[in-house]
């Protein structure tokens, strides 16, 4: 049996996918609900926490972007 060392991090795991007509940025902020808004090329994610709200910023390439958050996963789609 193989063992894998998993390290906890306070920062979300972020991945970027490039397609012909769009880019998609996906961030996993944990099993929480929160809100996401895109302002001036930055996706602002706010997650309620026990010590107040946690806020994350994700750089978004481009101005035309749609963002949603479901089950702790933030998805930002940027049209080209």
Can you describe this structure in just a few lines?
The protein is mainly beta and 80 residues long.
Secondary structure layout:
Blueprint: E1 13-18, E2 22-28, E3 35-39, E4 42-49, E5 52-59, E6 65-70, E7 73-79
Antiparallel strand pairs: 1-2, 2-7, 3-4, 4-5, 6-7
Written description of the protein model:
Mean pLDDT is 81; it is low at 1-8. The chain has strands at residues 13-18, 22-28, 35-39, 42-49, 52-59, 65-70, 73-79. It has one domain: Immunoglobulin-like, CATH 2.60.40. Strand 3 and strand 4 (42-49) form a beta hairpin. The chain has 80 residues and is mainly beta.
Helix-strand pattern, N to C? EEEEEEE
Q: What is the CA-based Rg, rounded?
A: 14 Å
- Into how many domains do the coordinates divide? 1
CATH topology: Immunoglobulin-like
Can you tell me the residue ranges where pLDDT is under 50 for at least 5 consecutive residues? 1-8
What is the class in the CATH system?
Mainly Beta
Continuous helix count: 0
